[in-house]
């Protein structure tokens, strides 16, 4: 089977912010569910994050979801009020260990490199491996909290990497060394910045996203989490420019480049 044919076995639909539907092996997996209306959302104290555009789907439109891949529960741009309510109707939510304790219900916490196997409708199995993520500069964890990414693998399917809110290329290099080349990388980008850490990056900027794609050997990159919130400092144009400059514009997902 050619690489392009393998990639076609994985579909990814993006809806703004970090919310994307990944269909793989007959399973429907949703990343970081956010459905609230545009507006200001508190992140503690006087700090707010501003949502600037609506999510391009609703829970009703999505239909059945087999599992949610939740990078973290602490921030409203990754899990909002409507997203929390949505989790009650999902049979499994995979997230951080602390997040699972806070959420309860069907949430299951994973430490980095811990695995879960999901049965597929076709009789196969999809392995979901928790991947490390770093939501800011070195030492950020006491402030930004624990975050997790995910690697999806099966013997007969392409490998998918979901970064979660990660700002560290060193983390990406660790993942690439551990799991080898990936077919599809769902990269949280946007160069998110707030008042934290004097405005240091909280997610990958566009140049780093291109570098991550090269490190991962990704055949396809689906950028998410680069639009819809005021703290994103780089959008679609910056991503296209960075990938083009790196000679990687051909790996950007076709649906992304058409928008």
From TrEMBL:
Q: What are the recorded GO MF terms, alphabetically?
A: hydrolase activity
Keywords for this protein: Hydrolase
Where on the tree of life does the source sit, at the highest rank?
Bacteria
- Indicate the transmembrane segments per the record: none
One Pfam family per UniProt = Lactamase_B_2
Q: Which Gene3D superfamilies match?
A: Ribonuclease Z/Hydroxyacylglutathione hydrolase-like (3.60.15.10)
Endpoints of the signal sequence: none
All copies of the Metallo-beta-lactamase domain together span 28-226
Q: What is this protein called?
A: L-ascorbate metabolism protein UlaG (Beta-lactamase superfamily)
């Amino acid at each position: 089977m050619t690489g392009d044919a393998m990639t076609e076995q994985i579909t990814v639909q993006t809806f703004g912010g970090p919310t994307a539907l990944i269909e793989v092996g007959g399973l429907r997996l949703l990343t970081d569910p956010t459905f609230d209306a545009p507006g200001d959302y508190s992140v503690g104290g006087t700090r707010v994050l501003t949502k600037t555009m609506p999510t391009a789907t609703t829970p009703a439109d999505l239909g059945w979801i087999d599992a949610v891949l939740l990078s973290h529960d602490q921030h409203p741009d990754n899990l909002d009020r409507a997203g929390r309510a949505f989790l009650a109707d999902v049979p499994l939510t995979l997230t951080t260990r602390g997040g699972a304790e806070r959420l309860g219900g069907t949430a299951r916490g994973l430490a980095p490199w811990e695995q879960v196997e999901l049965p597929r409708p076709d009789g196969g199995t999809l392995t979901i491996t928790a991947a490390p993520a770093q939501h800011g500069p070195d030492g950020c964890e006491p402030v930004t909290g624990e975050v997790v990414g995910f690697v999806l693998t099966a013997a007969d399917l392409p490998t998918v990497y979901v970064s979660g809110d990660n700002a560290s290329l060193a983390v990406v290099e660790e993942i690439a060394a551990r799991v080898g080349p990936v077919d599809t990388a769902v990269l949280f980008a946007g160069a998110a910045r707030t008042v934290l850490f004097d405005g240091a990056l909280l997610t990958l900027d566009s140049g780093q996203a291109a570098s991550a794609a090269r490190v991962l050997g990704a055949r396809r990159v689906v950028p998410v989490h680069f639009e819809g919130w005021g703290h994103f400092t780089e959008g679609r144009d910056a991503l296209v420019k960075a990938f083009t400059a790196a000679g990687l514009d051909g790996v950007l997902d076709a649906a992304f480049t058409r928008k």
